[in-house]
Amino acid sequence: MIEARSLTKRYGDTVAVDDLSFTVEPGRITGFLGPNGAGKTTTMRLILGLDRPTSGTVTVNGRPFDKLAFPIREVGALLDAKAVHGGRSAYNHLLCLAQANNLPKRRVGEVLELVGLSDVARKRSGGFSLGMGQRLGIAAALLGDPQILMFDEPVNGLDPEGIVWIRTLMKALAGEGRTVFVSSHLMSEMESTADHLLVIGRGRLIADCSVAEFIKANSQRYVRVRTPRPGALVRLAAAAGGVVKDDGDGHLVVRGLDPALLGDLAFEHDICLHELAPVDASLEQAFMDLTASSVQFRAGKLDEQDHERAGRELVRAGEVA
Amino acid sequence: MATTTVDQRRAGGVHAKQSAGRRGRAGFAEAVRSEITKIRSVRSTYWTLLALIVVCVGVGALFSYGDASRVTSAATAADRVAALAHARAFNVSGSLAGLLIGQLVIAVLGALTITSEYTTGMIRTSLTAMPRRTTVYAAKAVVFGTVALVTGLVASFASFFAGQALLTGVHAGTSLGQPGVLRAVVGGGLFLAVCGLLSFGIGGLLRHTAGAISAAVGVLFVAWSLSGFLPSPPSGWFGQADIDKWIPFNAGGAIWEHFTGLNMFSPWIGFAVFCCYAAAALAAGLIVFCRRDA
Predict the structure, then answer these.
(1) How many CB pairs under 8 A join A and B?
(2) Whole-angstrom distance, CA of residue B294 vs CA of residue B286
(3) A2-214 carries CATH number 3.40.50.300
(4) What is the DSSP letter of A165?
(5) A-chain residues within 8 Å CB-CB of B123?
(6) Which of the two residues, A271 and B14, has the higher pLDDT score?
(7) What is the pTM assigned to this prediction?
């Protein structure tokens, strides 16, 4: 269990983490979501005591991280796979971490086998590929068989096989009753792995709820229709309380109306429909809508239509996946 | 792939060890073992230590050989007497002259021991495994200090014996049994270890390899080089002679007689002063190591 209370970190005038309070519960995967620069990594560094909070507190199992008796037996963390001395072999890297927590040498061999690095255990880690480096980082996190695991953007730069491997691993770990706290800036990633979400933007907590709740509260369900008589349908739908927009490629986008109701209306008024598709805006869209106002670095403002198009593309990408 | 085995793997006795262990908390002993693994598992350690011994012995042998050859090649009897007197006067300090360069080599390793953690990012992993920073810093310093002391003693004794072997031919050599000789040779090893620790402290303070090594070379070597350029004021004034003995290298070098003069500290006092400089660097390094975000 990780508990943050009014956690704040300032670097000069920049507020990286702003009055953050949350609890990460055991037995599930908590996704820590936010755009790049939102303060996810800083929050994780604060949890691990690498950074000192400007104010507020954060505890792990009720205690500050540096008061834990054997830290890596309680918390396994992968913040940055590059945080190793490249001149040291994978085996020795893990051995020095194991020794710091009085873990048996045998455990090093076990985690190396678990992540599939046994064959290169004696090779210097500086020559490892990105995927191998990530596996070494995971091995270090699992070394102490901890109840709490923290991963910062674990799938970044991995190939599809590696991504699947990490997802499966995280689910297995949570399935064993462990606390898994994983950050990502990709909503789709969280959609397929997380049970619970903490969403932050500009260092502030935007949402703290289950993934289902998050989608329900934030997704904008809509109906996509195509008809040879758009003008008539627009009037009908508007009269029934829907908000209609022409998306420019022959479809109408109707919000606020049930798809069945819309179909019935069209039928009653003899408007033939060539297409009627209820669309659940993906979590990606909800996330983008939610954090749009809190993105720190934005490449110029998208106009409404661009935004809509970007949303559609994401929806399609979601359908394909 | 291997994920299905998480369950059975984790049964692998980690907690058995935990309950079997007498200690209830990861502390200094664990940190020391970890640091021993760290220092012995990178190649730079071996290269630097080998370089230390080679440089100390090589430069010292060169000095002793030069002194010996001036005796054998003296043109006149008077020259020969003078050369022999010189060779005898510097038979210890000449053979240890390589320490002047050796101090820089051990300074490099001292700085690297701590700065390499920052330049590689390893520090973030290290402090996640052991977040009690004072313990980590102390363990690092003790492990490095021990390695530096042992290697320093080897370098100092090897330099001494090599030098005496060259000087014995002209009857200018000495032995460890002579007054003050053992102190000087052991002192050479102590001096190197403290040089390394001073640099280690600077490494903790600056966190950058290049910066820390430059600063250490400045304190150990450049300060000494420049001290020779200070003007000599009229007697009774505060000047070169008063400053000279406080120069780190002069204070620390007193124990192995690199230069003995009326104005210098006596061997152990000088060494104590040198240790104070190193202690100040170590303390400054510790404060920064603990206070600053990693």
Answers:
(1) 148
(2) 13
(3) yes
(4) H
(5) 83
(6) A271
(7) 0.84
